[in-house]
Every structure is written in structure tokens, then in C-alpha cells.
Amino acid sequence: MSENIYAVEMEDICKSFGAVRANRNINFRVLKGEIHAIVGENGAGKTTLMNILFGALQPTSGRIRINGQEVTMSSPNKAIRLGIGMVHQHFELVPSFTVAENIMLGHESAGKFGAVDKAEIYRHAKELAEESGLKIDPYAKVGTLSVGLRQRVEILKALSCGAQILILDEPTAVLTPNESDELFEVLRRMSAQGKTIILITHKLKEVMAVADHITVLRQGETCGTLEKAKTNHMELAALMMGKSAAFSPLEKTGTTGEALLRVDHITARDSSRLEKLKNVTFDVHAGQILTIAGVEGNGQTELVSALLGFLPVASGSITALGTDITKLPVKDRRNYCSYIPEDRMTTGLDLAGSVHDNLIAGLHNRPEWRKGAFIDYAKTGRHVDSLIDAYAIKTDGSGIAASSLSGGNQQKIVVAREMNFGTKILIVSQPSRGVDIGATRFIHEQIIRMRNEGCAILLISTDLDEVFALSDEIKVIFEGSIVGTLSPDAVTPQELGLYMTGAKKMEGVSGTQEGGAA
Ligand SMILES: Nc1ncnc2c1ncn2[C@@H]1O[C@H](COP(=O)(O)OP(=O)(O)O)[C@@H](O)[C@H]1O
Ligand SMILES: [Mg+2]
Fold it and tell me: Which residue blocks in 403-436 are alpha helix, DSSP H?
């Protein structure tokens, strides 16, 4: 007999939805008291597997053991009785009720509290919050709480029902980085108290930070369970994507040409006259990816706004393709620069508009696409179809609303449009933010392709992995100044970090001169 005590054992689990085989012969075991992560790309079958464990779905075949006992997980109520709790991606709370009332609603019958003893409900909620470290005001109305706090209520609800095994489905998707860190603290504490945690995520950084074991799912199958201490980010990514080439370096070809975008000593102030950009100077050449690296909030947003014409510069100049565009209105700058914004879903897309209209937005006035006063839909349609094809955008035709596509495919619309604008300068902000590994890889490939074709690429990124994967040259921005010009081959992530936090600067930065640009 093994010494290991398994809280959960799932054996040969299969589940089909019509023709879709969401889970195929999955074997999955979780040790008592551990934090076990399930990772996998969208659609890999993670939620399905956990809904089966929670009794919300019945498997087509397979067996489940809880603490060594074989069980039939016929319903969520049965799972709750067996000490399993699940926090779904979408919360199931009553907004007009208080925190404590919502916690009580989680019970199969509120009987535990007799004829609803108000004082007892609030005492119980307070005690649970203290014990678990999930700080919350039991009297607050749930409708007034932030998403992060509502999630706490969901977790407390599960704990209140006596959950010893807690399943969390992509809990950090709705949290800020700070809230995520706080959640991980709580999860570690619960695990130390002997509770078993199953955490679904596709963020590998989180996995490496909190998990003891990691199970990788790919296209409905498990690729096995790994011990955190014996694996790494790369191995996990390769398993998730199923291509050993997944993280081979992207091949760069071609030579660097002339400077297509020149930013010369620009200074800009925000609406309260605070100086947000101080003498910022750099050139981006044809066939080059220049990255502005930095901790968020050090002037990156203002720099992009100044380049696109939303924020006037107080001094200095911006030259694109040899033309001074410093005073050019926003719409005319579109002829020089394409732009992939960070929040692609809100500023990059008209969600109510069709896939077709989103893919040609900003381009519909092209003379070759016009028939007199009207758009030549036969021509734009062909262009749109070729983009849908080339970028593998999953959609039921180009006439449907962009809102009906998945998040990843909505992002692809913006990427496809901006990368086919016909401009030689591309500005990309945080391309990997909010997308899974496969989509990130795809976007990175497209950026490198454009670079190899001779475009000048300005990349704004806070993600060091991305900075090292893409940059030809790195400029670090700190408090509105460029404080370092670095080569990705000659700097370590640690040293780059020192520049990003202002602990290190190249000589002569604080004054009027950028300096150091070799
Ligand atoms: N209720 C359902 N009906 C039909 N297909 C479903 C249903 N739930 C999930 N699927 C399909 O099963 C596959 C796995 O989905 P899911 O378990 O949600 O993946 P993940 O959580 O890893 O993103 C996907 O192809 C999805 O479209
Ligand atoms: Mg899911």
C-alpha cells in the first residue's frame, strides 16, 4: 500500500457532448492537503472534469473515489455532503442580500441555523472570515462589492458548507495582480490547515508560484501530472500546446534599415500639468523591434497617446517616414502607424459591429474599395475572408457580431486588421496580456514576421519574458524618462529589473539628456 493519501481519485473519466469528446480516459489524483493545479488551453476540458467531480455533470464512463471510497457523484448536493466545494467562473450570489445571508444560502437547508437566527448568521460569517483569512464585512450588501470580494463570498460559502476539497475554476481571471497574491496567501493557509485545493488556471506563472502538483490537459486528454519542483514554465507550455517547438526561439531574418519612426526629445504633461514624459528620445528602424520596457504607469500610456496624437507634446518632435507628424490630427496619423492597443476588446473593437466591419474599420475609405460613394462589398469581403483564413479566426461567417466570438478570436480581429493596414510602423501594447499561450505565440510570430518584412515595430511591454523573446533593443522607461538602453543579449532579467524599478540608471539621465544610446 502506498503511503500517499488521495483526497480525490478520478479514473478513466470520459465525457462527450454530442461529437465533442471533452474528457477522454482521464486519470487524475489529488493528494490530501495539497494545492493541485490543472492547466490547459481554452477548451482542453478542465471545467468539464471539475464539473464531473462536483456532480454537476455525469461522466459517460469512469469512476470517482473520495478519500479512498468509491462514490457516485449524482449531484452537487451529494458532492457538498462529501466535503467538496466549487467556486465557478460565474458567481451565483444574490446581490440584494448581505455577505452573511449569501453564505447561509449555500447550505442545502438553512436548518443548521434554526429559524434563521440573524445574530448567529453574522457571528458564523465573521468567524469563517477570520479563520480562513478571507477578510470581508459580513453586513455588506453583495451587490456593492468588487468582483474580488464577491469571489471571497463564494469561497466562504463553500467553506461554510464544510468543504475539505475546494475547486476554484480560473479564479484569478477576474482579479488584479494584488488580489491574486492575496488569494494565493489564503490558499496556502488552507492547504496548511489540511484542506485540499484544486486550482484551474492557464497562467503558468501562478502555477509555478502556488501549486504542489500540476496536471496538464490537452484536447480532452491528460498529459500527466508533474511535480512543481521538477518542472518548469517551458516544459508546461510545451505540454499544454502539444508542440515541442512551441518555445523554440522565433527566427529573425533580414537587416536593420533606416529610422522610420523618430522621437526627438519629447516632453508631455497630463491634464493636471504633471510632466509625464521627459525628453524621451529614440528611433525605431525598419526591420527592428524596439521595446519600451518598464513597470506599468511610468509614462507608457502617455507615450503611446503622444505618438497617436491624443496627447499634445509640449516640446520635441515626432517624425514618421520622414514627415513631421508632431502636430498632425489623430485620424491622419493612421496613415503612418498601425496600433494594437492593450485593451483590444474595448478600444480596438466595436463589439456590436460585424466581424467584417471590424476587420476593415479605418480602411473603408481606401479608393480601391470604393464604388462611387459606396463601399465595394465584393472587394472588402474578399479581403476580410482572406484575413479570417490567414489568422484562423473562428467565426460563423463575417456577417455576425464581433461580440459572439470568443475573447481570443476577438483579439485576433484587431491583430489581423492592424497588421494588414499597409503601414510600415506598428505600435503594439502588451500583446500577450489576457490571452492564452497559444494566442500569445501566434501574435509574437506575427510581430516577428512584420519585422522580418522590414516594418519598424515599437513594442510596449511590462512582461519580461516577452521583452526577451521579441526585442532587438530595449529602452527602459522610469518616471517618464528613458533610463537605460540595453541589448537583450547583454542584460540579465535581474539587471533589467533594476532599471525598471529605478535602482539603476545610465549616466546623465536625470537631466535633459537621454545619453548612453550607443
Ligand atoms: N455543455 C456543453 N455542451 C457542449 N459542449 C460543451 C459543453 N461544455 C463544454 N463543452 C465543450 O467541451 C470542450 C471542453 O470544454 P471545457 O471543459 O469548458 O474546457 P476548459 O475549461 O478547459 O476551457 C470544449 O470543446 C467545449 O466547447
Ligand atoms: Mg473552463
Answer: 407-419
Residue 342 lies inside a defined structural domain of this protein: no
pLDDT confidence of residue 36 = 98
Domain's final residue, options 224, 245, 266: 245
From the CB of 17, is ligand 1 less than 6 Å away?
yes
Residue 344 belongs to a domain: no
Asked whether residue 99 falls in the same domain as residue 37, the answer is yes
Q: Is residue 301 part of a domain?
A: yes
Q: Which residue has the higher pLDDT, 413 or 517?
A: 413
Calculate how far, in angstroms, residue 43's C-alpha sits from the geometric centre of ligand 1.
Answer: 6
The Å distance, Cα 486 to ligand 1 centre, comes to 45
DSSP string, 328-380: --HHHHTTTEEEE-SSHHHHS--TTSBHHHHHHTTTTT-GGGEETTEE-HHHH
* pLDDT 10s digits, 132-151: 999 999 999 999 998 889 99
Domain end: 416, 440, 459, which one?
416
Arithmetic mean of pLDDT, 480-499: 90
Tell me the pLDDT tens digit for each residue of 158-213. Answer: 999 999 999 999 998 877 777 888 999 999 999 999 999 999 987 888 899 999 99
Whether 430 and 491 share a structural domain: yes
φ and ψ at residue 299, rounded to 5 degrees: 115, 0
The answer for residues whose C-beta is within 8 angstroms of residue 371's C-beta and 6 or more apart is none
Domain that holds residue 269: 249-336+423-518
C-alpha 218 to ligand 1 mean position (Å): 12
329 with 372, same domain: the answer is no
Query: Using a 6 Å cutoff on CB, does residue 48 contact ligand 1?
Result: yes
**Would the CB of 46 count as within 6 Å of ligand 1?**
yes
Q: Which atom of ligand 1 is nearest to the CA of 18?
A: 4
Facing residues of 291 across strands? 459, 474
Residue 114 confidence (pLDDT) above 60: no
**72 plus 154 within the same structural domain:** yes
How many domains is the chain built from? 3
Any atom of ligand 1 within 6 Å of the Cβ of 360:
no
The answer to whether the CB of 408 is under 6 A from ligand 1 is no
Instruction: Looking at the structure, tell me whether residues 141 and 192 fall in a common domain.
Output: yes
Q: Are residues 145 and 278 in the same domain?
A: no
Residue 368 confidence (pLDDT) = 85
Residues with CB under 5 A from ligand 2 (ion): 47
Residue nearest atom 1 in ligand 1 by C-alpha distance: 17
How many angstroms separate the CA atoms of 458 and 259, rounded? 12
- Return the pLDDT at 62: 97
Shared domain check, 295 and 160: no
What are the E-state strand segments in 32-88? 35-39, 61-66, 69-71, 84-87
pTM of the model: 0.60
